[in-house]
Amino acid sequence: FREHSSWLWLHKNMFRASNFLRIIRTCTEKTFAKHRITSYKEQSRTITRMASNLSFKFRDKDIPVSCSPAVGSDTAKLAVDSEIFKNWVKRCGQDQDGKFIDLRGVEIQHVDMFGPRVGFVKINADSRLVDGKAKHEHRLPGICFLRGGSVAILLALICEELGGKVFSVLVEQPRVPIGTVSCLELA
To answer: How far apart are CA 80 and CA 62, in angstroms?
Structure first.
């Protein structure tokens, strides 16, 4: 493992999961410090970039927007200005029973355009569920696929023992992709 070729070797082999542990064992701390790579997570963070100081207002704060290399600054701006993104931010800003979603950053990972308008936006939101009553917060999974309205299928359970009464199973949980603290969903 020669110093001058270490970056090229590391870059080629970093994304192979089976090689990653071997890379950590064989590379010296000096080499990692020199290239500022301490983990796969840090390597993946360097791939995203800030989208020309792009941000949006949420709860009177400016929330920074970053984007993957596949998304240009102009496309990121179109995504942030789109109706589907604005509706998502609005829904995230609603409180329910003292609980609310706190956004801290958004990474735009992909944008699908339908001609001149934004069709689908895939984002990863750094978000927390904050319980104002209990003074408690925890991180929420933030991968979201933003789009317009859609069609769903409802499964009806008919109980013959109760005279044909109709039931369906629902689950209540916080959902960052639709911007709500408490959402009833079909199980």
So the answer is: 13
